[in-house]
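Input record, target 12 of the design panel.
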């Protein structure tokens, strides 16, 4: 065999060997590079919590009664001789689907649950009263969408001709206050909205 060919073959073999070793050495060090910016588990958890909170906010109404001034004039809270109070404290009121400020998409056609939260001044007990509030058109739409020929509600109902938050709240407040007795002296006043004269 020609010595020149042997030298070329050995040189090529050595060059290939060195190149393979260089590639192998650099690939062993490659995983060190991503370690400059490690992913912290807490960051992923925080993101998940933020997404969950955003999801809850999207499902719940933006405004509830505790977020805005109470729009009705109520009799003063009075302790009676028998140790009971003339009325509860009103803490909050809300619809699960309807925002209190924006109202329903169609003021003439809606049906939703209405909750009023109160606290007894004597024992600090919190109660939640539930009503179904609807317009006749809203009830008809509910029946049509569910293909029902009859609807039976166990809760008390408030039927209005169109969306009127003050009237709805006033009706519920009067109903709740009746359970506290002593309502007769206020019956003629009808817990009117505080700014009713501007309406």
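The sequence produced for target 12 reads:
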């Amino acid at each position: 065999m020609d010595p020149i060919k042997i030298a070329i073959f050995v040189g090529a073999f050595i060059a290939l060997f060195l190149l393979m070793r260089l590639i192998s050495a650099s690939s062993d060090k490659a995983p060190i590079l991503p370690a400059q910016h490690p992913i912290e588990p807490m960051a992923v958890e925080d993101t998940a919590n933020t997404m969950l909170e955003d999801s809850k906010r999207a499902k719940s109404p933006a405004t509830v009664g505790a977020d805005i001034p109470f729009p009705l004039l109520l009799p003063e809270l009075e302790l009676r001789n028998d140790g009971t109070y003339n009325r509860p404290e009103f803490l909050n009121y809300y619809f699960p689907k309807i925002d209190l400020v924006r109202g329903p998409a169609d003021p003439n056609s809606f049906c939703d649950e209405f909750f009023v939260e109160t606290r007894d001044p004597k024992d600090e007990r919190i109660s939640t009263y539930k009503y179904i509030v609807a317009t006749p058109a809203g009830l008809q739409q509910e029946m049509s969408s569910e293909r029902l020929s009859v609807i039976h509600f166990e809760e008390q109902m408030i039927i209005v001709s169109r969306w009127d938050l003050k009237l709805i709240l006033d009706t519920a407040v009067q109903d709740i206050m009746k359970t506290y007795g002593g309502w007769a002296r206020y019956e003629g006043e009808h817990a009117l909205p505080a700014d009713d004269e501007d309406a």
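The chain has two domains: 3-59, 65-198.
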